[in-house]
Amino acid sequence: MVFLASFEYFLTHAEDKGFEVAIIELESGLRGIIDKTYIGLNSNLTLQERTEELFHELMHARYSIGDLINCWASDNHFKRLLVLKEERYIEEKVFNYFIDINLVVEKAKYCRNDFELAEELNVSEHLLKEYLKYHVDEVNSLIRANQS
Question: What are 38's strand-pairing partners?
Fold first, then answer.
């Protein structure tokens, strides 16, 4: 069983680390932002999505290469590549915290769609879809192995 901390747990952790956390309106597609002492979470997110995004932003605080926004806006290809690599690294940290591949395989037997599977895993449908985008072959391989 995976222990999942609540939004309040991560909020307290963020505040203990010196971050002010706010629910704000962000442009379409942005789920959260982080600065040296500030984390903003998109007001359109569900509580579960906010929890996952707050964890995501806290991972940036821990592992960041620096100012991602200016790196991304740069014309320097290397800086933009570093931003993409950091995002993938952080995504995997989030996946590893919230999703257990063995539970995905087990619960997938009984669920009719991604929404039901996300509910069973106690994750957002968004996180599950992102996870499957990168891990579908691994999941399918385990499903086939369990059927033999």
Answer: 20
Q: In what order do the strands lie in the sheet with 38-42?
A: 20-24, 38-42, 32-34
Q: Kindly tell me the burial class for residue 97, based on how many C-beta atoms sit within 10 Å of its own C-beta (0-12, 13-18, 19 or more).
A: middle
**pTM metric for this prediction:** 0.85
Domain boundaries, the chain: 1-98, 100-148
Instruction: State which amino acid sits at residue 72.
Output: W
Instruction: Write the DSSP symbol of residue 46.
Output: -
Structure tokens of 59? 């991972």
Q: Considering only CA atoms, which of 90, 110, 93, 100 is closest in space to residue 139?
A: 100
Q: Residue 45 and residue 127: Cα distance in Å, rounded?
A: 12
User: Measured at the alpha carbon of residue 62, what is the angle toward residues 17 and 132, in degrees to the nearest 5?
Assistant: 120
pLDDT tens, 11-27?
999 999 999 999 999 88
Phi/psi at 44 (nearest 5 deg)? -80, -5
Name which CATH class applies to 1-98: mainly alpha
pLDDT confidence of 1, banded at 50, 70, 90?
Answer: very low
For residues 111-139, give the mean pLDDT: 95
Q: Which of 28, 25, 52 is nearest to 124 (CA)?
A: 52
